[in-house]
Design a protein that fits this description.
With about 950 residues, the chain is α/β, with parallel strands linked by helices. Helix content is about 50%, strand content about 15%. A five-stranded antiparallel beta sheet has the order 2-1-5-4-3. Strands 7-9-10-12-11 form a five-stranded mixed beta sheet. The chain has a five-stranded parallel beta sheet with strand order 14-13-15-16-17, with helices on both faces. α13 links the parallel β16 and β17. α3 packs across α4, α15 runs antiparallel to α22 and α22 packs antiparallel against α23. It is elongated, with a radius of gyration of 62 Å.
Length: about 950
């Protein structure tokens, strides 16, 4: 809508009322004049026709037309030009006489007129009057009543309206003239008024614009009339106040600027302090990362010893129980290594560096490993631990089994920790997404304390626990569930909790896995169990359903029982069972019940097996002693269960046939190159048990010379060596020798990720990181050397005597620096080799001290790096972890560009440790 100005409003408010008033008054007077003229014409016509009708009575009675003509002509001429025509008709409405016969004469003719009075008819330009002519000569009795007089004729007069119309037009013209005069007067008045208002308004607007522009001198000194004077005074006051406020504001601005300068200086000081604090936080974070890395390394070292000795024990004659114990030890040690790695997981999660592997694995074996590890904790509390995997769940998957086991370990161990009695059940289902992917749905339910709703959300936060007070009963860092949540989300799944106080908890999560194109089918001896009758008794519902599903999938006819009554009914049948399986909780209090069940079942079955929630060897032996053929621990391992049930029906039953196994020496020829004599000796010792021929070299030049004259199947090449380093030797061997296609494997004390990529680009086929062990070398040989191995030429070594057992298994001297168990592990359990390698290290220390001190004095950084690298390689196999860590730290720092000054603390500590080691030995040769 268009906005109107003051001038337009003055014109509008002046002209519109004047126009409306003029139109109303003009219309009123014009209409009144029009009505007055009509009434005047009617009155004139009536006054003419009625006397004329009376005058024409005698002439019409006597039929005297001349008198009638004279009468109407006289009347017509007297009232001309008002009268257009006068006509007299007889009582039948026949024309008698007329004063003017014209083309509109038909308007005077009226066919029927029963009216006794004058009739007026209006036309566009004429008014026609009709009045009857009465005969007054009839009886005098009724002479006073005209209604009773007979009509002898009619008089018709046609009156012209031209003069009336002219008068009406004059009246309308006069009204219009009055209206126009009024409008002109109003317009003139409005213009004068608007001009009188607009001039002061312009001055006021100009003054306001001046104020808006920042100029307080508005110059309105001349007085104005009326309200404008008030406005003028108000503007002048505003201008004066603005001047005052501007001065005051300027003072405030100056004060604010001064305060801002002081604030900015404070901010700059705080920014400097924040930068310092940020740098300190980054340094602290770096220290934390270094601490975690070093602690992780220090914890892994003794665990490696546990795992190494466990593997050595596998090589000795063992009974079945000992093998089970070693399986548990190895699984526990490996799981502990994984848990130690979890210390770094939270840091990885914070940095978003969590990566998942894609490995082909078997689901049931993975779950069984977790349950075997956690079962002892559940059995100690007499808890029922059960796993139920539905039939449709695929056995072969592609994903990260280590992280999947970590999720299960965290959730199941928490369930065991917070459950005092009852059971922990694990249910695994699957939902097929497409032909290449499936989603596992895992539910872990316990009968523990439960968690209140207000504390459930905090469980999935870092360091969150249901009870974080210092008096809490259960331990834990509170990182397990947050790590679990991130791993589950990395597997494109989610985790949820359903719990209530006193009603236990149920953790449910789903994870996405790929389905492999080719499945690994593990052959179990289920054919031996076909058509066998099996009696199965298990009162615990979940364990009952889980084991029953496994047995039925093997095609076994199972008679399942949950109660004693059902068991008695099954035993009262006419036939005996081939196999009976009894599941029960095992404790000193339940021994009597188990004995009763065994005695009830023994005579009705060929083989009787127990499944109990204990790993106690003595308990299981006692249960076997009361009549059972074997005793298995819950939760049931499907492989062990199948092998145990099928054992009596197989030709390769351990009591009938025990296969002999022996290591095979591969007909391969290898070249081992290392400048460190101890490293060289250890690698050769480990390789002699696996391949047929070995050549050695102490530097790259010797290796190149041998490679030009001998063809090798494998070359193990150290990187940092005198005369010619490993990288140069690798390039020259691949370019000009008989071994252009021979796999060359780099052997280095510590390979950075970038260094490993660099080695592979140069031409190395693979790399091994010190310290080496038999498994690493065996894997490298089979991966890189088997394609060169002639078929059907494997040699079986002669039986070796355990001569190393005859040597002293103890350390040659006492020292806090030497970890003799680690030295034995690095030597493959060979005490003699461990003594010899430690002796070689001790003999090299004086020379190392001398060359290192000289290089430090000369500030030869590269020389120091060579010395440290060489000594680092020797430390990897001699059980001196502290020296190894110091050497590794200095080597890594120098490789990353650190100066000699940066590593001086470690260098001085390293020299002190060498002095302490020699002091502990008290001799130069061990």
């Amino acid at each position: 809508m268009t906005k109107l100005g003051l001038k337009e409003w003055v014109l509008l408010l002046t002209l519109v009322p004047a126009m409306i008033i003029g139109l109303v008054l003009g219309s009123y007077f014009t209409i009144n004049r029009y009505l007055e003229l009509n009434d005047f014409l009617v009155e004139q016509g009536t006054n003419i026709i009625e006397p004329l009708a009376i005058s024409a009575e005698d002439a019409l009675v006597n039929k005297n037309k001349n008198t009638l003509n004279r009468l109407i002509s006289h009347s017509h001429n007297k009232q001309s030009p008002l009268i257009k025509s006068i006509a007299i008709f007889d009582h039948d409405y026949n024309l008698v006489v007329t004063s003017n016969y014209h083309r509109h004469f038909s308007q005077l003719e009226q066919k029927t007129n029963s009216s006794k009075s004058t009739l007026v008819t209006f036309y566009d330009n004429y008014i026609v009057f009709h009045t009857p002519i009465f005969d007054h000569n009839v009886s005098s009795d009724n002479s006073s009543l005209t209604q009773a007089l007979p009509i002898i004729g009619f008089v018709a007069i046609q009156i012209n309206k031209d003069q009336a119309i002219m008068a009406k037009q004059q009246s309308a013209f006069f009204s219009l003239l009055v209206i126009l005069s009024t409008l002109i007067f109003a317009l003139t008045f409005a213009l004068k008024l608007s001009q009188r208002l607009s001039q002061p308004l312009k001055k006021i607007v100009l003054a306001i614009d001046t104020l808006k522009s920042g100029n307080q001198d508005i110059s309105i000194d001349r007085p104005m009339g009326g309200e404008f004077e008030l406005i003028r005074q108000g503007l002048n006051n505003i201008s004066h106040n603005m001047v005052m406020q501007k001065d005051e504001m300027q003072k405030h601005i100056d004060q604010a600027l001064s305060d801002n300068r002081e604030t900015f200086e404070q901010y700059e000081t705080q920014n400097i302090q924040l930068n310092i604090a940020k740098q300190e936080a980054q340094d602290a974070n770096k220290v934390k990362s270094d601490f975690l890395a070093k602690m992780s390394h220090e914890l892994r070292t003794p665990l490696n010893g546990v795992i190494g000795f466990t593997r050595q024990l596998y090589k000795t004659p063992l009974n079945k129980n000992q093998i089970d114990y070693l399986d548990t030890i190895e699984l526990s040690a490996n799981s502990l290594l994984s848990i130690i790695s979890d210390i770094l997981d939270f840091s990885k999660l914070e940095a978003g560096a969590m990566e998942l592997e894609k490995i082909h694995f078997q689901l049931r074996d993975t779950v069984n490993e977790v349950l075997t590890l956690l079962a002892p904790s559940a059995h100690e509390k007499s808890l029922e631990l059960s796993i139920y995997i539905q039939d449709k769940v695929p056995e072969n998957l592609i994903g990260d089994p280590t992280r999947f086991k970590q999720i299960l370990i965290n959730l199941i161990s928490n369930a065991i920790k917070f459950t005092e009695s009852g059971s922990i059940t694990v249910d695994i289902e699957c939902r097929l997404f497409d032909i290449k992917h499936t989603s596992l749905l895992v539910a872990i339910k316990d009968t523990g304390h439960g968690i209140s709703a207000d504390k459930q959300d905090s469980l999935f936060m870092a360091f969150g626990q249901a009870d974080s007070s210092i008096t809490r009963k259960f331990g834990g860092t509170g990182l397990g569930l947050i790590i679990t949540k991130h791993i589950v989300e990395a597997m494109k799944g989610g985790i949820s909790l359903n719990s209530a106080l006193g009603k236990g908890s149920c953790f449910t999560f789903n994870a996405m896995f790929e389905l492999p194109e080719h499945n690994h089918i593990e052959i179990l001896p289920i054919n031996s169990l076909k058509q066998k009758r099996v009696l199965y008794f298990e009162p615990h519902e979940h364990s009952h359903d889980a084991t029953l599903t496994i047995l039925e999938n093997w095609g076994i006819h199972v008679e399942a029982c949950k109660t004693i009554d059902e068991l008695e009914t099954a035993l009262n049948q006419e036939f005996n069972f081939d196999i009976s399986i009894i599941g029960h909780s095992a404790s000193p209090d339940t021994m009597k019940d188990i004995r009763t069940l065994v005695s009830m079942t023994r005579e009705h079955t060929d083989y009787l097996y127990l499944m109990v929630n204990t790993i106690s060897h003595n308990m299981r032996e006692a249960l076997v002693g009361i009549g059972a053929d074997a005793c298995l621990s819950k939760p049931v391992n499907h492989k062990k269960l199948c092998e145990t049930l099928a054992a009596p029906y197989r030709l390769d039953h351990p009591s009938i046939h025990t296969p002999t196994t022996c290591d095979k020496i591969l007909p391969l020829k290898a070249l081992v190159v290392d400048d460190n004599a101890a490293n060289l000796k250890l690698i050769c010792t480990l390789l002699e048990e696996q391949i047929e021929n070995l050549d050695t070299a102490h530097n790259g030049a010797q290796a190149l010379s041998l490679a030009k004259t001998h063809k090798y199947d494998l070359i193990f090449l150290d990187i940092q060596m005198p005369i010619m380093d490993g990288i140069t030797a690798c390039k020259m061997i691949l370019d000009s020798s008989l071994n252009e296609d021979t796999p060359i494997i780099a052997v280095t004390a510590h390979a950075l990720a970038s260094e490993k990529e660099h080695l592979l680009k140069i031409g190395f086929r693979g790399y091994l990181t010190k310290p080496l062990d038999e498994d690493m070398l065996r894997q490298a040989i089979h991966e890189y050397g088997e394609h060169n191995m002639p078929k059907a030429q494997l040699k079986i070594p002669k039986a070796k005597t355990n001569s190393h057992i005859l040597n002293s298994p103890n350390a040659p001297f006492r020292s806090s620096i030497v970890d003799w168990k680690l030295a034995l592990e690095r030597a493959g359990g060979k005490s003699e080799l461990a003594h010899e390698m430690l002796n070689m290290l001790m003999l090299s220390i004086p020379e190392t001290q001398k060359t290192l001190e000289q290089a430090y004095i000369d500030r030869e950084r590269e020389k120091i790096l060579q010395i440290i690298h060489k000594f680092h390689g020797a430390c990897c196999y001699t059980g001196v972890p502290k020296l190894k860590n110091l050497a590794e730290t200095m080597e890594l720092s120098l490789k990353k560009g650190a100066s000699i000054q940066d590593i001086e603390p470690e260098l001085f500590e390293f020299q002190d440790e060498l002095i302490n080691l020699i002091s502990d030995a008290n001799v130069e040769e061990v």
